[in-house]
Automatic annotation (TrEMBL), chain A:
Subcellular location: Cell membrane
Membrane-related topology note: Multi-pass membrane protein
Lineage, uppermost ranks: Bacteria, Candidatus Aerophobota
Annotated family: Belongs to the binding-protein-dependent transport system permease family. MalFG subfamily.
Protein name according to UniProt: Carbohydrate ABC transporter permease
Keywords, in A-Z order: Cell membrane, Membrane, Sugar transport, Transmembrane, Transmembrane helix, Transport
GO biological process: transmembrane transport
TrEMBL record, chain B:
Lineage: Bacteria, Candidatus Aerophobota
Keyword Transmembrane applies: yes
Membrane topology: Multi-pass membrane protein
Family: Belongs to the binding-protein-dependent transport system permease family.
Residues spanning the membrane: 12-34, 77-98, 110-130, 161-183, 204-226, 264-289
Listed GO biological process terms: transmembrane transport
Keywords tagged on the record: Membrane, Transmembrane, Transmembrane helix, Transport
Domain ABC transmembrane type-1 stretches: 73-285
Name recorded for this polypeptide: Sugar ABC transporter permease
Annotated compartments: Cell membrane; Membrane
Length: 284, 293
């Protein structure tokens, strides 16, 4: 008996050790960045992470951002919020309709499976493949460096996932409910608006937040299609930081500003994140 | 399978699906056809040169003469292979080790989710500070335990590994959480049955667990591989493709040749070659996920 319980304790201890080592490896860079954003420039090149004990906290980096860089930072933050907010809204509308169609209706000639596969394949291929033609397209339409261009591209980026996930969510709603509504004289569109949408509201929120996160983080198109007026936050920090001689305090502060919004959203919906990232294949 | 209520004849269904399809035709199908047609031209927009039709010459140059393309392809394949393999092994190890009742489960899940929610370009700048050869944090740590400094971003043989390490930091939790979800969905009875039949825990893992979670493993591996192929931000933010082009990914090559040198025709041809390479991998993923529709 005693042997067994010792083995049990050993196992529990092992689990704790592995969990904690993995957690430290994962969060150490982030914690170090938080600490470093409150250091002076000279102190920023040190390992220390405990304020007051190891280093004297300073507002240097944040003052820099809220002072000298305020114009650029605030403009790009607003751009990022507008682009992510609007593009996710459009993605949600189109994705909801298409996902519902693929879940509920039969497309004889094209086959639902083929449409769904085609849409998913659009998420799989590397976006850089359409970068050049889309750049030329936006230039021809005089849309370079506008919100509209980036919103369109981010919709392209997120719509396949939205369609796929919404299809998944609608499949989980039993058809009987809509069926009885139809029998009671509700139109098909009415059944969609009054019954399916409210029933899948948690799915809608998940899809909106996921595409907000991805749009916020998207970099390749943002840096290619915007340079001044419509520049998004990630593209702005890349421009501000790609000079020689890194000022670690300032880099940390800017990086944290970019990381925090998607991180908060992701934590709020951590249940759906793995599901979203695997196109519904893993329901963790 | 579907009930009669959702009849085939209901024409309103087109109202639901067409907006998305029209959007994709405008934003993907049209640009890709345009890109294909441009790939037959020599069009160096930076020098104001005219478009000259040269047939398949761009493709010939890429496949037969472009050393940079083959080097970038080799690095990209190395990166995809190494990151996916190491993340899978680490993820599988961690998931099977922690496939118990985890204390503070939600707390740890949130912690592990953090890296993959950060914008990749922010991850790149974060790690640039760690990998910096002179004042970088990792080299300071190495110095503390009196190990020699490593030229993370300036040594041709180390720089590719530096990017692999960053990817492992960012995406191992994805493998781990996905595999853990798969393991925890398995019923306890199969292990009891295996134990009754006299299987050791290791045998049970190899002959029972692995085959049962194989579909999930394949899905996760292919999703990761496809994603790793798109590698761009880490190259942009950490190494800029250097030293000596040793960490330049295909995405980065297409980006620079198209939007820095404005060699439009050539970069469109490069895009198509890249697309065909990725297509081979995507076909496997699609076959797999298709069963779930």
């Amino acid at each position: 008996m005693i042997q067994v319980s010792i083995r049990n304790i050993g196992k529990k201890l092992l689990i704790w050790i592995v969990l904690i080592i993995f957690a430290i490896w994962t969060v150490f860079p982030l914690i170090w960045a938080v600490a470093t954003s409150f250091k002076t420039m000279t102190e920023s090149y040190t390992l220390s992470i405990i304020p007051y004990l190891q280093f004297k906290p300073s507002w240097y980096a944040w003052n820099e951002i809220w002072g000298r860089m305020f114009g650029r930072v605030s403009k790009s933050l607003i751009n990022s919020i507008v682009v992510a907010g609007l593009s996710s809204l459009f993605v949600l509308a189109l994705g909801c309709l298409a996902g519902y169609a693929l879940s509920r209706f039969v497309f004889e000639k094209w086959k639902n499976k083929d449409i769904a596969t085609w849409i998913l394949s659009l998420r799989m291929f590397p976006p850089v493949v359409v970068l050049i033609p889309i750049f030329l397209m936006m230039r021809t339409l005089y849309l370079l460096d506008t919100w509209r261009a980036i919103i369109l591209v981010h919709m392209l980026y997120n719509l396949p996932l939205a369609v796929w996930l919404m299809m998944d969510f609608f499949n989980e709603i039993p058809e009987d409910i809509e069926e009885s509504a139809l029998i009671d004289g509700c139109s098909r569109f009415g059944a969609f608006v009054r019954i399916s949408i409210p029933l899948s509201s948690s799915g809608l929120v998940a899809v909106y937040i996921l595409s907000f996160i991805f749009s916020w983080s998207e970099f390749l198109f943002a840096v290619s299609l915007s340079y001044n007026k419509a520049i998004t936050f990630p593209a702005m920090i890349a421009g501000a930081l790609s000079v020689k001689g890194l000022d670690f305090a300032r880099v940390s502060a800017l990086t944290l500003l970019a990381i925090t919004p998607p991180m908060i959203l992701a934590v709020l919906m951590s249940k759906y994140l793995i599901r979203g990232l695997t196109f519904g294949a893993v329901k963790g | 399978m579907r009930r009669t209520v959702y009849s085939v004849k209901f024409l309103g269904k087109w109202f639901f699906i067409l907006p998305a399809i029209i959007f994709f035709i405008g934003m993907v199908v049209f640009p890709m056809i345009w890109s294909l047609s441009l790939s037959f031209y020599n069009w160096k927009a930076a020098t104001g040169g005219a478009k000259v039709f040269i047939g398949l010459k761009n493709f010939y140059t890429i496949l037969a003469k472009d050393v940079r393309f083959w080097g970038d392809l080799r690095f990209t394949l190395f990166y995809v292979g190494m990151t996916v393999l190491i993340e899978l092994l680490l993820g599988l190890g961690l998931a099977s080790l922690l496939n118990k009742k985890i204390p503070f489960r939600n707390f740890f899940r949130v912690i592990y989710l953090l890296p993959m929610t950060a914008p990749p370009i922010a991850v790149a700048f974060l790690w640039r500070m760690f990998l910096q050869p002179d004042v970088g944090i990792i080299n300071q740590l190495l110095h503390k335990i009196s190990l020699p400094a490593i030229k993370w971003t300036t040594d041709v043989s180390v720089a590719p590994w530096a990017l692999v390490i960053v990817d492992i930091w960012e995406w191992t939790p994805f493998m781990f959480l996905g595999l853990l979800a798969a393991l925890q969905s398995l019923p306890q009875e199969i292990y009891d049955a295996a134990a009754v039949d006299g299987a050791s825990p290791l045998q049970a893992f190899v002959y029972v667990t692995i085959p049962m979670i194989m579909p999930i493993i394949v899905t996760l591996v292919l999703l990761r591989a496809i994603d790793a192929f798109k590698l761009f931000e880490l190259v942009f933010g950490i190494t800029g493709g250097g030293p000596g082009g040793s960490t330049e990914s295909l995405s980065y090559y297409i980006y620079t040749s198209g939007l820095s040198y404005f060699d439009i025709g050539y970069s469109c041809a490069l895009s198509w070659v890249f697309l065909i390479i990725v297509l081979f991998i995507a076909i496997f993923v699609l076959r797999l996920l298709r069963k779930e529709v």
